[in-house]
Specification:
It contains 5 helices and 4 strands; from the N terminus they run H-E-H-H-E-E-E-H-H. It has 135 residues and is α+β, with helices and mostly antiparallel strands. Helix 2 crosses helix 3.
């Protein structure tokens, strides 16, 4: 793997990643790398090296990423990484959004002085309060 990539190549990678993320909400590492490689043929950089640069750039912007051949969703942050099979993506995203809402509610209640007992995990009383809070 090379480490002396030109500023032009690095700028192209960064721009391509930002564009892909802004338009699709996800960066397909293989597709973006191939587009960058074609635009920069004169540099004679291997596709694998450009894929590495694209992956780094996508991680820097916190973009969801996918790999063309796998068709799975790959998400990573400071807490770890997760690979989600295509058949489960909608369910996992829906559940994750709901989990974030619940945790925001719980944090708000704890900040207001509520006890964690019965609140986490939520018992029937707290679930009713949560449902009302969502409205």
């Amino acid at each position: 793997m090379r480490y002396d990539y030109s500023a032009q190549l690095r700028d192209d990678v960064s721009s391509a990643v930002h564009t892909a993320f802004a338009t699709a909400g996800i960066v397909n590492i293989t597709v973006v790398a191939e587009q960058v490689r074609i635009r920069n043929l004169a540099e004679n950089v291997a596709l694998e090296d450009i894929e590495h640069l694209v992956l780094q750039a996508a991680q820097l912007v916190g973009a969801a990423i996918e790999f063309d051949g796998l068709a799975s969703l790959f998400v990573a942050d400071d807490d770890g990484a997760l690979v989600i099979p295509p058949a489960l993506v909608d369910e996992v995203v829906t559940d994750a959004i709901e989990q974030e809402r619940e945790e925001a509610f719980i944090a708000e209640q704890l900040a207001a002085g509520a006890s964690v007992d019965g609140l986490y995990p939520m018992n029937a009383e707290w679930k009713a309060r949560y449902a009302a809070w969502q409205r």
